[in-house]
Amino acid sequence: xxxxxxRRRDRSGRGLNLPAPGIGIVVASSGxxxxxxxxxxxxxxxTRPPDIVVLSVVTPTDAPDRxxxxxxxxxxxxxxxxxxxxxxxxGLDRLRGDTGIVAFxxxxxxxxxxxxxxxxxxxxxxxxxxxxxxxLLADGIHGTxxxxxxxxxxxxxxxxxxPPGPPRLLSRVEGLYGCxxxxxxxxxxxxxxxxxxxLYGWQEDxxxxxxxxxxxxxxxxxxxxxxxxxQGRERQGLRLGYSQIANPFYLRRKGTMxxxxxxxxxxxxxxxxxxxxxxxxxWIDRKGRASGNRIALFDMLTxxxxxxxxxxx
Length: 313
Description:
The protein has about 325 residues and is of the alpha/beta class. It has two domains: about 5-225, Spore Coat Polysaccharide Biosynthesis Protein SpsA, Chain A (Alpha-Beta Complex), CATH 3.90.550.10; about 235-310, no CATH class. The protein has helices spanning about 35-45, 85-95, 115-125, 150-160, 205-210, 235-255, 260-275, 285-300; strands at about 5-10, 15-20, 20-30, 50-55, 75-80, 100-105, 110, 130-140, 170, 180-185, 215-225. The strands form two sheets. Strands 3, 4, 5, 6, 7, 8, 9, 10 and 11 form a nine-stranded mixed β-sheet that branches. Helix 7 (about 260-275) packs across helix 8. The chain is globular, with a radius of gyration of 20 Å. The termini are far apart.
């Protein structure tokens, strides 16, 4: 862990010199070395850098050739079968024992330069919070996606604006948003991502963080941009459409997603896919998603529904 220390004050007002908690970053990725390079560059320039960054990839070619030369943290690369939940679990297993905070970042998420310092300050300020999701300046997942240069321009404007105030908790949530979620390691214990949610995992963030004891919150203590990168037209709409029904159904039965949230996800996606299939977005396979929805609904009626079924589609 970094030797950096920070000043804290106990309730009596006396100053305490305590070591800052070690920060570990886990990034699961496949086929996006350019995005990982941009993320590593942002991490290397943090006002409070991480102590270790684990890149959990499928093959070594998925990772950048090297870390930024000025990086003040260790980069570890682990490889194995593709699947968001399995890759994140492999990354978790590589963290050191002195890690106090672990942040799971998507490979196309870019943090503000004070993001990690904000994480530490927020966990310090709010002992009731065991999990935090930061505020997003923009989220390209809802459209065509954002280019890295666009995300960097948004971050530059933010970083040259008014200085941040004290950290705040904006809302309490059932689960955290997987593109940027930070968790106290002390609250995790042996908790791991559910590998019954294969490939892209769909709702794995809700499942994982809803099982963490204590409060989960959205905070303004750290911020960033989620590029929501699209790599050409979606090729596995059928599988995703199936997961949009099967995964919430599975998590509801498992008890990690409320009935209301599960129904909201399923109904919203079925309606969106079938309505927009008439005039689909160029980058989304709406017809494939709609077909996957229908297969999952049939499997629900016949008792065959299971997240792993997408591997057979």
